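Inverse folding, one chain.
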């Protein structure tokens, strides 16, 4: 029997469906209201697991997990229609296993194909998304199929297409982050873009940064305005192309964390004014952890080759890997100097900025006989370069 509290909730929801979306935890409240109708777990869990393994060649791990979650299935064949539909539009066995083992996998498999899933896929198709893009987007974010077709999926895709200008760019963005389906873009993305544009940031730069900082653009407009205000209070020039980086840097941490970070940097011997010079030159260099910043400064100063002034002038060094880049390069430069193999010390950019290939060509290969074992450092550099990874 449904409790009086649940009856009230159900009555209010039926009269005004939108109230459901404003509950603190709508999924919990709704499932609680209908808890008396929850089906008991079926006794044929093994049969469901065997079905996925034998019929669809799922791994035992995925099949067992799916069977334990699909408690509402009466027979394993119930989800056959859904699997057949997905296979028909290009989903591979691997894609299907990813969907089935996701948090919303059971809900998707047990949904009605014609009523629940097909209309949502059709929206993507009608807007011009390729089957390949649809497969990639949904496999990475199966839960988006549980959103309303007309109230969330279509409006979100339409807004993104208008903002980015093409379906190809929307597809690329959604492969990076599908958070855009979690928010009302008319109340987040659009007002944030309009406000930032009014601050002097070009639309071209903003759309480019949506790919780099997707969740930033989904913040409440009030929060974005506060971050802009803080950056302006630091006298950061709005005309600078780094202005947006300064804003997103502050948005990546709380005020308390930022203040503690400034305190740590000052304790390393860098003055307040120098910190803001660094911030204006490379805002995101200060987005790293306090430990990382401290470690970089200590390694640079410990080498006695370069000093704090170099760090202030080249704050990008704070983002470099200590073990894979700074220590090996400083060691090579120190050996070259101690053996008088170079006439003058390399500029600071050699420590953190130039590529491994360039560094090896200038400071390792010409002196490989004199460097001895240090030459083997180049093998690590070269292997990283061949794999296309930056170290």
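Residues assigned per position:
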């Amino acid at each position: 029997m449904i409790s009086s509290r649940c009856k009230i909730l159900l009555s209010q929801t039926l009269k005004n469906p939108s109230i459901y979306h404003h509950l603190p935890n709508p999924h919990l409240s709704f499932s609680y209201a209908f808890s008396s109708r929850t089906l008991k777990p079926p006794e044929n869990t093994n049969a469901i697991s065997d079905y996925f393994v034998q019929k669809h060649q799922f791994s035992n791990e995925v099949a067992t997990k799916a069977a334990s979650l699909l408690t509402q299935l009466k027979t394993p064949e119930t989800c056959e229609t859904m699997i057949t539909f997905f296979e028909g539009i290009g989903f591979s066995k691997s894609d299907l296993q990813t969907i089935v083992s996701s948090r919303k996998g059971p809900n998707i498999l047990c949904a009605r194909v014609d009523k629940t899933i097909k209309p949502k896929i059709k929206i993507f198709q009608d807007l011009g998304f390729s089957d390949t893009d649809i497969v990639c987007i949904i496999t990475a974010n199966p839960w988006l199929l549980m959103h309303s077709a007309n109230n969330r999926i279509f409006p979100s895709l339409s807004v993104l297409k208008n903002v980015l200008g093409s379906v190809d760019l929307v597809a690329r963005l959604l492969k990076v982050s599908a958070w855009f389906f979690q928010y009302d873009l008319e109340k987040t993305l659009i007002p944030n873009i309009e406000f930032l544009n009014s601050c002097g940031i070009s639309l071209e730069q903003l759309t480019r940064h949506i790919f780099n900082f997707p969740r930033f653009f989904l913040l409440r407009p009030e929060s974005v305005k506060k971050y802009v205000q803080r950056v302006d209070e630091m006298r950061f020039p709005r005309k600078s192309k780094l202005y947006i980086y300064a804003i997103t840097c502050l948005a990546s941490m709380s005020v308390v964390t930022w203040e503690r970070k400034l305190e740590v940097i000052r304790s390393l011997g860098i003055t307040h004014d120098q910190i803001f010079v660094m911030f204006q030159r490379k805002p995101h260099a200060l987005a790293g952890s306090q430990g990382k910043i401290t470690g970089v400064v200590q390694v640079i100063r410990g080498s006695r080759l370069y000093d704090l002034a170099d760090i202030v002038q080249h704050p990008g060094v704070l983002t470099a890997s200590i073990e894979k880049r700074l220590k090996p390069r400083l060691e090579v430069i120190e050996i070259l100097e101690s053996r008088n193999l170079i006439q003058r010390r390399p500029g600071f950019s050699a420590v953190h900025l130039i590529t491994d290939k360039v560094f090896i060509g200038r400071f390792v290969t010409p002196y490989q006989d004199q460097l001895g074992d240090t030459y083997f450092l180049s093998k690590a550099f070269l292997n990283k370069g061949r794999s296309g990874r930056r170290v």
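The two ends are 63 Å apart (CA to CA). The chain has a mean pLDDT of 84.
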